[in-house]
Structure formats: structure tokens, C-alpha cells
Amino acid sequence: MGNEHNHEHNFAHRHNGGHEHENRSVRDMRMSDTTGHNRRHALECMIWAGTGVLWTLSGGVPKSLAMLGAAYAATALSGFTFLQISDSHVGFDKEAKITAVDTLHETVSKIGALQVKPAFMLHTGDITHLAKDAQFDDAAQIIGATGIETHYVPGEHDLVDAGQGKAYLDRYGKGKLGAGWFSYDQSGVHFIGLVNVVNLKAGGLGNLGADQLAWLASDVAGLSASTPIIVFAHIPLWAIYPQWGWGTDDSAQALALLQRFGSVTVLNGHIHQIIQKVEGNMTFHTARSTAFPQPAPGAADKPGPMIVPTEKLRGMLGLTSVTYAVGTQDLAITDSTLG
Amino acid sequence: MFGNLIALRRIIGPVVAAVCLFVCAVAQADGVRSDGVWSDGVRADGVRAAQVTVTIGNFVFSPASVTLHKGDSTIFVNGDDTVHSVQSDDGTFHSAGLDTGDKVSFTFDHPGTFTYHCGLHPFMQGKIVVE
Predict the structure, then answer these.
(1) Closest C-alpha among A24, A76, A5, A21 to residue A238
(2) CB B25 to CB A162 under 8 A?
(3) Residues β-bridged to residue A320
(4) What interface predicted TM-score (ipTM) does this complex get?
(5) CB-based burial of residue A77 (10 Å sphere; 0-12 exposed, 13-18 middle, 19+ buried)?
(6) Of the four, A199, A284, B60, B68, which is 20 to 30 A from B75 by CA?
(7) Residues of chain A contacting residue B119, judged by C-beta atoms under 8 Å apart
(8) Quick check: pTM over 0.90?
């Protein structure tokens, strides 16, 4: 799985600002196997016992590293690995010496060098910078060179064509519903691609809408609670920094529909950096961009591209690998940088 | 494509640009038109009218509120290093994505108050009052 130096555990890059609750939540779960005093802790203890090992690994607790090895071993027998890439912003060219096309090519090269070929890829939106035909064409050509099936959800940048999303749906709407939402099953895991970037309201955040929520309710209605669920969407489905629009207005309604499942993993993009939280049976994870970094929440006056020296840029871009081992309901999430 | 049109407009003048913007970029309801850009106070159709510039910078529309007379227009200029758009809250008008340096103009033929936001960053908001 690549160079050890390029790997890191997610919590190493978590940001404290505004996330005291999440920190506390994770800390509580870590301690719950020894201090399960109340009902909530008891529940978390059960979750810990049932799914906590790799789940803890997804939170990057170092002492569980041995179990990560076990997970990969199990995967070799009966699981699979998939990749998440995000925010490729093809067309972005504000860096001095390197463009989003260049760094997407580098990402694809890195994918090609992986020892274990991923079963498929997810792209969590902002494929393009301006939803231009040429940008969509370039992205499809570059990503297609991996030869790996890729499932897409749009980012808001993919919908700024004059047709307000027509360009995206013409390319990626086949077999999908509404603005492009869909689900599929892979080896017993249920994947749900949601669209929360359409018709954003003044002063609001990301938005799923009533139609999509109704579909989601029906989509998961027949599933066993033991079915592992992976949800992916562009804008985070949790409030990371609403002042910058980094959240989804009606995400709580979507998550409520998934509450009964024993393992729910939510993968998002949009913020161009890794932030993760674990809450109850749900793991939330955002991926790096392949194009440019953005500031940590509140660390700058406004969001937007951070122009950094070229030699530092590759260390701030990257992709995410997720490994699922059948029978454990557990997912190991590993982020790596381009350089 | 839109960015190319804007470059085109700079080169070959306002009349053609008006056509391109109207055809390619923006859907309008009654009373709001996308007429392209003019610089001398005379629209492509010969009518003398005012044009007020709203600059987009650091994720802010400035000025946040402009007041026009019927027939006047507002031109939005994106001075940021990321993409923005102009989206009226009621869906009456919208632009495509504006890259750095891109412009779009709307002409208002009827009185009314139009609040708008950025379609990508909806915390960015502004208002146009047509008297």
C-alpha cells in the first residue's frame, strides 16, 4: 500500500477548533471498555466490543496497529479495498508551476502503483472547476486511465454550467435518480451516493431535499441492520464549519434513517483536508483534494484555495483507501499524500 | 465555454457579446435580461442607462446592495481566485460559474427587489433594488 512515510492516521490531522464535542465523543469511546458506567457508555462498549478494533484503527489509535495487519490479512481472503478521490477541480490553474490536471495525473500514477488493485473508486465531487465540457472530458480521460470503475457524485463546481447541472447529468446521470443519487451493493456492503449540492439556498448549507430523503428511506428500508453502510456525498454530512458552508442543512434527517445500522461510514470531500469524527456507530471522514488545499476551519478569513509553495503542495494533496473485511463490519481507512 | 465567451467579448465588442451571453449563459424571467457589458452608458439597443458594478472579492459582494432605475443594469465582476456565481433567491436569474476576472451583466426592466446569493457559497448574499 505504498510508502510508509506517506501514510498517516487520520487523527494526526484533526483540528481542535470547534470540535470539542467530537473529541470528547471519541475519547469516551476509547475509555468505555474500562469505564462503562452509564447506559450510553454501555452501548458504546458493546459497539466497541463488536466493531471497535478496526473502527479504532480508522481513528488512528496506534496500539491497534497489529489488528490493522489482521484486517489486511482478512481482506486478502474475503474483503475488498476501494479508493476515494475527491475535489480534482480539473481546470484550476492558480498554482505557479502545477495545475489540477498535473496533480490528477500524479494521483492516477500513484493509484497505478498500488500493490492491491482497488475494487472500484469513489469520486466525491468537484470533478471539474467550472463544469466546462473540456474539463469533464479531461477528467474522464485522466481518471479513466486507471482502468478502475469509478462511481461519482457531483460537487457544486460540477453544476455551474449554464444548464445548472445538465452537463454533469449528461455524463454521469445514467442509471441514477433525481440530481444523481444512487445506491449499489458490493460484497454485502451497501453503498449510497447522495447529492447535496443542488439548489443551495441563500444563507444555507448543503442540501439533500425532501425527494432524496424519501428515496433514501425507501432505499434502506429492506436492509438488515447488520448490513454495513457506506454513504458518500460531496459536502460533509455533519457540521464542520457552518460559517463557511461546511455542513448540510438536512443531514440529520438522513443520518436518522441510518441510525439502526451497526456500521455506517460517511465519506465526504469539499473541504480539501482530512477531518474525522466517530460518533456511536457512525464514522465520518473527509478526504484531501487532488488539486489544492483549503485552510483549516476558521484558520483564515474565508475558505478558498491555499496557494502554497510547490514543494509543499504534494504533501497536502492525496487520496483515501478503504479496506473492508467481510464478517467484521469493520473498515480500515488510510489516507496517503501525493508526495 | 463560458469563460471563452467572456474572452471573446473583450476582443470583438459588446454587441456580439450581448448575443452570446443571452444565448449561452443565463436564463431570465420577465423583466430581467442579460445584455452584456457596455462602457459608455449606451446599451446595445441605443438606450442610455446606468450600469452599476458589483465586485466579488474575498467571498463578499460589494456593494452588498445597489439601487437601480428601470432599464439599468448591474455587472458582476469576480475578483476572487475561486469560482463564484450569481443566483437570485427566487430563481428569476442566475449566472454560470464565474472564474477569476469573469463578468456577467443583468438588466432590470421592471421595478422590484431582488435578493441574490452565490450558488457555490450561499453565505455570500446581496440585493438589487429597482425603482
Answers:
(1) A21
(2) yes
(3) A84, A335
(4) 0.77
(5) exposed
(6) A199
(7) 156, 159-160, 200
(8) no
